[in-house]
Amino acid sequence: xNNSSKYSYNAFxxxxxxxxxxxELQEHKGTHDVRISKRIVEGVLDGPENGMRYxxxxxxxxxxxxxxxxxxxxxxxxxxxxxIRPETDEKLIRLFLLGTAFAALIHQKMLFPLHGSAIRFNxxxxxxxxxxxxxxxxxxxxxxxxxxxxxxxxxCVINLNDYSKPLVYPAFPQMxxxxxxxxxxxxxxxxxxxxxxxxxKFAVPMKKFYGKNxxxxxxxxxxxxxxxxxxxxxxxxxxxxxxxxxxxxxRPQFIxxxxxxxxxxxxxxxxxNEIKLFRIIRPEANYRLNEMVTLIIETLNQQVYGxxx
Amino acid sequence: xxxxxxxxxxxxxxxxxxxxxxxxxxxxxxxxEYYGLNQIGSxxxxxxxxxxxxxxxxxxxxDEFDIDIEKCKEDxxxxxxxxxxxxxxxxxx
Lengths: 309, 93
Hints:
By secondary structure, chain A is an alpha+beta fold. Chain A has helices spanning 90-108, 136-145, 179-184, 238-247, 253-257, 261-272, 289-304, and strands at 7-11, 14-18, 26-27, 34-40, 52-58, 61-66, 70-75, 79-84, 112-121, 124-129, 150-152, 155-160, 166-169, 174-178, 193-194, 201-205, 215-226, 232-236, 276-283.
């Protein structure tokens, strides 16, 4: 069985040994702490007609079943066993593996996954979070165009170091952009891979990926939009900061299933007290990306790094 | 429910609590409901670290904030009632 494991990667701060090819991830040589294995299942899996089913009678074994075709067994914070039928589309497996299944593993390891995209600024991590369609990936791509490295898209893994300072870990060098954002950055639609056939969201390689080590996390920007023409920016503190970090946790429903409410609560507050959180509201009608980039850089310089103009 | 001076107030131990930017943040393990307390509320919560009689709480607050007892009662009773209604504190007489 073991000689089928031939791929070695680094993602989300973990070294991974995998049975299946994961071209999205950066390769890694050396020891590993997470094992991804594959089992081919004949016949249908016991799963829901539509969507996903989560089972977690034992927190050390979190089970995700997608329709009757894919099952992930996420065990002990160090193993993902994928059960699939022989004909299952690999793109589909990877889409769920690198999102939902890894989110379960991250929660099981009691790390904090924040939903958003992260960039490197002043040798620190800055995260953009917000609801779907708020423009998290788009603003990260705009920073990338301006020469900044990207650390993650979609899931930003955060943990506290031995000095109780938050660190954000690079994920992997691919981002997902909606069709209109793909056009914005002049990628050629024909050259890009749709994340799923018939889906207007594309897998785009990151131009500048910061893929080495974790960076200290200094600030989080929550992106929202409104129907006015101006930008608005404000610092958020106290219970509102707690609320926003809680709500934008990736797959928050896994917390109760894994019975890690206390650990997540403690970690969230530990992180929250060490970072600045800003709410930035942009006009819905027109993204005006360059203005937004300038505003974010000004805010960071003045309110995080204390640089006066 | 009316509070009497010698009622002992104690925190609901099933609530997780922490501080965010100096304000107390609480969350229920059971239903994930969360609450934030303002500065004064946070201070009162901290006074209740171990169970405390209502009149001892008032004595502490009047001392620390240099206000008279009537004013102190007037200002804190609605807050304490809210904590009770939301099961954040209990009375054990």
